[in-house]
Amino acid sequence: MADKPVFFVSGTAANLNVASANGPQPGLTPIHVALALACKQTPVFAATRTRSLTDCYGAILREDVIAAVNVPSVDNSAMDGYALRLDDIAAMPDTGPLSIPVGGVSLAGHPFEGNIPVGRAIRIATGAAIPAGGDAVIIQENVTVNADESEIRIERDAVNRLRRGDNIRRAGEDVKAGTVVLAAGKRLRPQDVAVAAGQGKDSLVVTQPLRVAVFSTGDELAVPGGALPPGGIYDSNRFAMIGMMRAIGCEVTDLGLLRDDFDVLQTALGDAAQNHDVILTSGGVSVGKADLLKPVVDSIGEIHAWKLAIKPGKPLMRGKIGNCLVLGLPGNPVSVMVSGLLFAVPLLLHMMGARGEDCTAVRFNVPAGFALKRGTGRREWLRARLHRNGNGELVALPFRSSSSGVLSSMVWAEGLIELAEDRASVGQGDLVEYIPFAGLQAF
Ligand code: AMP
Ligand code: MG
Predict the structure, then answer these.
(1) Three-state helix/strand/coil letters over 302-348
(2) How close is the Cα of 252 to the center of ligand 1, in Å?
(3) Is the pLDDT of residue 285 over 60?
(4) I need a surface site. Which of 8, 189, 209, 419 has the fewest CB within 10 A?
(5) Which distant-in-sequence residues (6+ apart) come within 8 Å of 12 by Cβ?
(6) Which pLDDT value is given to residue 316?
(7) How far is the CA of 22 from the centre of ligand 1 (A)?
């Protein structure tokens, strides 16, 4: 489960064959290969802690939760009505309506004690325990009650429709005692936490939040809130990275903005590695003179991977300083988000002990509402939206520009279209894979 490498990105053997003419570009690693290797080389984080239920939302469960009790704990009524003994009814006249005296009441939290007296019905409320001997509940809408509620009358057609078990919720029908209700590795949603509460648990063992240090690099960058020098740009990447990390439950240290200076970067990374589990950076991982991340990590740690066959986001560094994982995302704002969402986030979720399903983007096929031709060799994500065309069909539309610098494309988009390494063209109406943002873990 959590410790197995998982393939997060779909693909066929054909389009992932490095040797094939239309495979990944030489020297670039397909993202699913890089991610599977990264998962294999990155141990699941051992530290767990017991947290009270209301602090567990979004956390990764690290224990199996075994049901201690049946839910419901006893057979109970699904409706307001009258509990009956069908054997009694079988012994009554078989023509005409039946009149049955009411022998008691069973309310939620106040059960009727003892057996249903022979020949009687018990008034019963939704959720109340079925009294001993009861085999069916007839809903109150299907009976007529006399003025002092001492007797009910059931018309013949309603009698004929009565079946054993009608409107009865059986003990253990929802959850059977002894079964695993939540498996270790689950990323806890509100309903998961609620099921644990339904078992009487008030706390769960979950992964301790990863301590993630985040910073941006680049001499052209200015800190939001400060002045913008001529030709400068505000640092936006840090805010995308912090948001993605927080969304998956990490404890983020914002280390701000660092200059493109070897010594500055070496000191900052070396210090951050002392007391963080992960360092996440943006910029400085290309091959220009100011791209210092790789030599800096090389000087105080090790580089494991470099350059993926993806667009946007090709330069992506994975390394280690001591026990601290270092992920160097590229500088272009869309690249930061795409490689963050599709590589950094799944890798960190794996580290937190999440199951494969909970690290995997939800995707489905949608007809393209566009046509394009493109160079093969890299898996590509287009910022996209679903749109209902003139025929009422749902189609995927890409943003007007595919530039990795256009962050507003991510604001416009509601998802991504994924094109495999070997896909050279898309025709109108051809199926494309669509990943809704809501199907990614950091939204
Ligand atoms: P780099 O990978 O450092 O060469 O950065 C590529 C481009 O991304 C730069 O030219 C900037 O325009 C842009 N960029 C880099 N870092 C950031 C950032 N933190 N916020 C916004 N844009 C950035
Ligand atoms: Mg730079």
Answers:
(1) EEEEECECEECCCCCEEEEECCEEEEEECCCHHHHHHHHHHHHHHHH
(2) 21
(3) yes
(4) 189
(5) 420
(6) 95
(7) 30
Q: Which two tokens stand for residue 191?
A: 């309903």
| Angle at which helices 262-274 and 293-300 cross, to 10° | 50
Tokens representing 289?
Answer: 């003179």
Longest Cα separation, the chain:
97
Q: Which pLDDT value is given to residue 328?
A: 98
pLDDT tens sequence across 365-402: 999 999 999 999 999 999 999 999 999 999 999 999 99
For the full predicted model, state whether its pTM sits above 0.85. Answer: yes
Query: What per-residue string of b and e applies to 271-297 under the rule 16 or more CB within 10 Å gives b?
Result: ebbeebbbbbbbbbbeeeeebbbbebb
Nearest ligand to the C-alpha of residue 234? 1
pLDDT one-digit tens code per residue, 318-367: 999 999 999 999 999 999 999 999 999 999 999 999 999 999 999 999 99
C-alpha span between 230 and 87 (Å, rounded)? 90
Smallest CA-to-CA distance from 327 within 355, 347, 356, 312 is with 347
Q: Which ligand does the CA of 337 lie closest to?
A: 1
* Mean pLDDT value across residues 180-200: 98
pLDDT at 13: 30
CB 390 within 8 A of CB 350: no
By alpha-carbon position, which residue is closest to atom 6 of ligand 1?
Answer: 331
208: its two tokens: 């301790």
Distant-in-sequence, close-in-space partners of 132: CB < 8 Å, separation ≥ 6: 114, 115, 116
Atom of ligand 1 at shortest range from CA of 220: 11
Q: How far is the CA of 257 from the centre of ligand 2 (A)?
A: 11
